[in-house]
Amino acid sequence: MIWNPECECMSTAARQAMQFARLKNLVEHVYNTVPFYRQKLDAAGISPADITCLADIAKLPFTTKADLRETYPYGLLAVPQAEIVEVHMSSGTTGTPVVDAYTAKDLDDWAEGMARTLNGAGACKNDTIQNAYGYGLFTGGMGVHHGARKMGASIIPISSGNTQKQLMLMRDFKSNLFACTPSYALYMAEQAKEMGIDVKSFSLRAGCFGAEPWSENMRKQIEEAWGIKAYDIYGLTEITGPGVGFECEAQNGMHINEDMWYPEIIDPDTGEPLPDGEKGELVFTTITKEGTPLIRYRTRDITFIIPEACTCGRTTRRIHRLYGRTDDMLIIRGVNVFPSQIEHALIEIQGVEPNYLIVVDRNQVTHLDEAELQVEVNPEQFSDETKEMEALRSNITNVLKSKLGIMMRVKLVEPKSIERSTGKAKRVIDNRKL
Length: 434
Ligand code: ADP
Ligand code: ZN
Known about the structure:
alpha/beta; Rossmann fold; GMP Synthetase, Chain A, domain 3; 2 domains; 9-stranded mixed β-sheet; 5-stranded antiparallel β-sheet; 11 helices; 22 strands; 25% strand; binds adenosine-5'-diphosphate; binds zinc ion
C-alpha cells in the first residue's frame, strides 16, 4: 500500500500544474520577504512576473552552500522567527554548518516525506522502528522520528552508537525495521557476529540506509548479514533532511517527493539544465517550505533522473543511486575520481571488504599527487603468506588502473583495522596542502 496515493501517484500533468503554482507562489513570497532573494533576483534582472511556466525555473539564479554560510544563522528566514519551531544544522562534512529552520508546517512536510520513505521500505503503523541515526542537530535522528510518529509506528529512539544495546533492543522489542548509515549497519552486523548473536533470528524485515554514499555491493552485504531488505534513502539538511527521496520495493532508484522538493539536474560546469536521463548535479527548489525556502539549491550531489516509470505505481520521478558529490571528487594526477567509484571497483575483487580509506598526499619533491588506498582484507582471505597477499594487492592495483585510469598505492590492512563510524564513514584523508 502506498502511503499517500493522491500525491505520489498523480498524473504528470496534474503534478506539473501543482509544481508551477507552488513555484510561482514561492518566488513571489521570497521576493517580498527575504532581502537576500530580492537582491539576487534584481541582480539577475528577473522579477516574479517572469515565471510563467515550470520551465521558467531555469531563469532563476542558483543558491549555493556559500550563500547559506554567509546568511548564517537566520538570514534566509521567510517568516517571523516566532513561527520557527525547530532548527537543524548540517553535520558539517564539508565545512561550517548550515541552518535549516522549520515552521510547524515544514515539520509536517518533513514527516510526510519520511512517512513515505518508511512506507517505501514496507513499514506500517503496526511496526516497531529502531532509529539508530544520531539525534541532535543532525537531521537523521529527528527526521526518521517525525516520520515514524506520523505513521503511528512504535519508535525506539536509541540514536547511533551503543551497539550492544542496539542489538539487545532489536531482539527484545522485536524491531521490524531500523534506520542508520549503511556503514553503521555493516559495523553492527560485524559486532553481532563477534558476540555470537544471530541477527537473522530477530524480527527485522528491512532497513532504511542513507546519509552517505554506498554501493550495490554494500547493499548485498547488509542484506545477507541481516537477512533483510536494505533500502537507499536520500536527503540533506538544507532541503529538509532525510525523506527527500527513497527507494520503493523495486529497489531501483529513489522516488523524489517532488510535490514538495522540485528536482532539476544541471551541468555542474555551465549551470545549464540537463534532460532526464543525463547525469549531472542535483538541484532542488523547496516549493512548499516556509521557514528557510531555497531556490535552485545546488546540492553538489551527482546523479541522474531515471526517465522510465516505476513498476510500483508511484509516478514521482526517481534519481539513480548517488555517485558522490562534486566536492568529494578527488583529482589524482588530473583524473577525476569519486570514492564511490573506487568502492564499486572493489566489488569485483574477491577477498576484500568494502572498508577502505583513501589517503592523498602531494610529493614535496616531484609535486605530484600520490594516493594510497587502504583496503581491509576479509578474515577468510587474510593470510601470512606474503605471496598470496602480494597477488591480491597487485590485482587491486590493476583493476584501479584499468577501470578508473588511476594509479594508487594499495595497502592491504588487517580485518577490522580501519576505524568504524556509527554515523557517516570517513573515506578520504587529504593531506595535500593546496
Ligand atoms: P553534510 O553536507 O554536512 O554531510 P547532511 O548531513 O545534510 O550534511 O548530509 C547530506 C548529504 O549526505 C547529501 O548532500 C549527500 O551528499 C549525502 N547523502 C545523503 N543521503 C545519501 C545517499 N542515500 N547516498 C549517498 N549520499 C547521500
Ligand atoms: Zn517505485
